[in-house]
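Weekly structure sync - notes
Attendees: PM, LS, DV (DV joined late)
Agenda: review two folding runs queued last week.

Item 1: First target. Sequence and structure tokens pasted below for the record.
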Amino acid sequence: MMQPEFSTGLLDRLPPVRGRTTENAPLAGITWFRVGGPAEVMFRPADRDDLVSFIRAKPGDVPVTMLGIGSNLMVRDGGIPGVVIRLGDGFADVTFDGEVVTAGAGAHDVHVAILCRNKGVAGLEFLSGIPGTIGGALAMNAGAYGAEMSDVVLSAEALDSDGEVHVLDLAALGFTYRHVAVPSDWLFLSARMQGVPGAREEIAQRMREISAARRTSQPIRARTGGSTFKNPPGARAWELIDAAGCRGLARGGAKVSEIHCNFLINTGDATAADLEGLGEEVRDRVRDHCGVELDWEIRRIGEAA
């Protein structure tokens, strides 16, 4: 499928930055599904001050979208209008104050878990099972293997749409299942998390167990976006999907994984429309089978082609 392009001259309306800006930046190659159109403008800020200055100076009508490593994400085939921000090394610092861990929003979850292991800080091993960044984990109260962000976060920094930085404690974050009570146009900058003292080998063993569980129960080598739907109250999404006869269901190049049927996979030539359409078909079949409405866990953004 020929990739669309934006031709609005948006770059000329944006303030000067020290980081990098790119028009019609391809996104499919950096999302785990390997689908989707371009970003109208991609901005990679040099550091925190560069990002804050940009948000304060940009035109108010220009939308901004934060993009991590593209793991729990589906970019639609028409691409993302406005500015897509991708955080780099300037936002990936991880520091320790005893068992309190401060991590930048661009730090990879698994990297934070490894550093905690090396420091003998336990309680954050679950991050090794979440393929994403700390910013993305905050934005959806990510969790796996018996723990989630709300169990460890003490506070987080977030940048509002006017460029003001807020320090939010646990109550202000308002975590619920796969949700945070922060305006959707705020951008997370960092998180402070509470660990506990632990033996390095015990921490390493727990991380090995998580890695083994992922390898055996999830299609981690496929082009996938992770868990597709949230678990409904008192039920597991994959069991409902399986009971509705959706395991292996396909549409175009998209398919429901036969390893774990709460995962959609791109078998090689899927479009975002194939994947999203298949997901909606799964939701319809589950609703018809048992009356349960599945909610998307994967973040779907951008415009249809």
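Item 2: Second target, run right after the first with the same settings.
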Amino acid sequence: MSDASLITRDLTIRFGGHVAVNGVSCEFRPGELTVIVGPNGAGKTTYFNMISGQLTPTAGRVEKDGTDITRLAPSARARMGLGRAFQLTNLFPRLTVLENIRLAVQAQTGEGWGFFRPVSRLTALEDKARHYLEATRLAKVADQPAAELPHGDQRKLEVALLMAMEPDIYMFDEPTAGMSLDHAPDVLNLIAEIKKDKTKTVLLVEHKMDVVRALADRIIVLHNGELIADGDPGEVMSSRVVREVYLGQAEGAA
């Protein structure tokens, strides 16, 4: 039996006559951070969207811990422990930072706001929310509306929301997109901390090679919707076919 926490089997999607992702099969395991790279239009985000449920594949399967989740909604996948952070921030802009996190904690515990709920339960939810604010270094802005945060802090808040859902599979789509050089290391450090937990599986779509080198245990390369390389970061990025299609180097170039 496979020890993979997540498997895609011949995952394919067509938009009219265009095949955006074509028969991609991969296994992802706990304790491993896999970076998905490829040129623009390679199918990286489309592949991600099929795994997390934003898109339904034309053919193939997505399995989590041996269960077929191909037709499940994103919310159902999240309840099963598959967490996704998006390239664009996905927050409740008018709520405070703390309120955003508290809602995520509440969703994870499955508790509603009952009128007769003991005060101790509400305190426990808030304490747990503050724990994630401390972990993501957002405690100082806990009472600030999310909309008023700078972009870098909004990205950190999204990571905090994902952590509060306590998934066992983390998916990040270009987590430093649009961030300044000053703020990007904060988010990357958070992902590196998540990576240390060997019970977690981490998938990352990224095009910045310094990020890839810093975090990747494994790289898979997509090109024209097909998987063309999968393996050790050094070996994959030095291969001729990857240099040609991803780095734009001609055969024989240094």
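Discussion on item 2: Confidence is low (pLDDT under 50) at residues 113-120, 249-254.
Action: LS to circulate a short write-up before next sync.
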